[in-house]
Amino acid sequence: MAEAPRRTENELQKSILTEIKEFADGIGPEELMQRCEIVKEDLLRNVNLLLKMQKIKMLKQGGKPLFKIVDPGDRTVGMSQKELLVHQLIEDAGSLGIWQRELRIQVSKDIVSTELTKIMKNFMNRGIAKEVKSVMEPKKKLYMLSYITPDRSLTGGVWYNEADFDKEFVNAMSLVCADYCIARGREAKLNHPHDFLERVKASCVSEAELLEHIVKCKVSQVTLQVKDVECLMQALVFDGKVQILMAGGAVTPVKDRQGRAISAGMKIYRAVETHLPANGLTQSPCGVCPVFKFCNVGAPISPESCTYLRDWLD
Fold first, then answer.
1. Domain extents for the chain?
2. Beta-carbon contacts of residue 10 (< 8 Å; ≥ 6 apart)
């Protein structure tokens, strides 16, 4: 039986390209070798030629190589193998990005530090990659592809402006939320002066209702979401200005003011009622001091030697 004629290099390359085109997510070398009915040496030689001609590119998935057809509009066209390796690592990092130190470690076997610096500078000049500041580690370099939006865990969300906490914006939005809760409490007190349960229900507000109020007031140029309002309300709870209730109890409403259903387990809020007006004595350490009656000028316990009073006055 006569042997099949040996295929030329061009025929082998056409066969390889045809098979790779069938796999949009890439194909591994073992499967490619079987589908092309080609020996390992011929496969490696022609794959390397196709890589140099930028007709295919090699990716890594789970530590294993994959081959894909190069899209003519792909910005990786014309990149060297080292640049492709760096690009792949940054792309795999997605919206969380990759730290400069981690990138340097992963490419250390193939690319020296100075060469990596040149590659990253070239990527940023061409708009392929960008450097992102993390609110957790603002002094460390973090890279990601230029078209990717950084994850909120890196940017801090709407409460940060270029990795700096926007205290004025947070305080302004907190004041709007607190004032709305107080106004609802006053209205509930007027409408239900003798019915405590109904007064509590009427004074409760949901996060969606607060967000709607912020949008209606046009006090924010930034688009906020319900989870942003939740952050504001948690801070107000810690400050003792509002209290949090879980919907579904006897004193919680089943619908908000706009008629939206409030499901059991949802967080709702109401302003904290101050029953006694604050005065200087109750706010000072003296108002809660357990040895107040022993405190006298010149005595072992005295105002002039009290560290708590000194700290409060400062």
1. 9-69, 81-155, 165-271
2. none
Ramachandran region, residue 284 (left: φ > 0; alpha: ψ -120 to 50; beta: rest): beta
Q: Do 233 and 242 contact (CB within 8 A), yes or no? A: yes
Is 81-155 in CATH node 1.10.10.10? yes
Work out the burial of residue 232: count CB atoms within 10 Å of its CB; fewer than 13 is exposed, 13-18 middle, 19 or more buried. buried
- Angle at CA of residue 244, ends 242 and 245, nearest 5°: 140
In sequence order, what DSSP letters do the residues of 84-153 get, joined into one string?
HHHHHHHHHHGGG-EEHHHHHHHTTTT--HHHHHHHHHHHHHTTSEEEE--SSSTTS-EEEETTSPPPHH
pLDDT tens per residue, range 46-100: 888 888 777 888 877 777 888 888 776 677 777 888 888 899 899 888 889 999 9
Give the pLDDT confidence of 282-302 residue by residue, as tens digits: 567 787 777 778 888 888 888
Q: Which pLDDT tens digit goes with each residue over 134-157?
A: 888 888 889 999 888 888 878 778
Domain 9-69 in CATH 3.40.50.2000: no
Q: Is the dihedral angle over the CA atoms 112, 113, 116, 118 positive or is it negative?
A: negative
Q: Quick one: what percent of the chain has pLDDT higher than 90?
A: 20
Q: Which pLDDT value is given to residue 38?
A: 86
d(CA 221, CA 209): 18
Residue 144 amino acid letter: M
- Please identify which residue in the block is written with the tokens 């907190």: 174
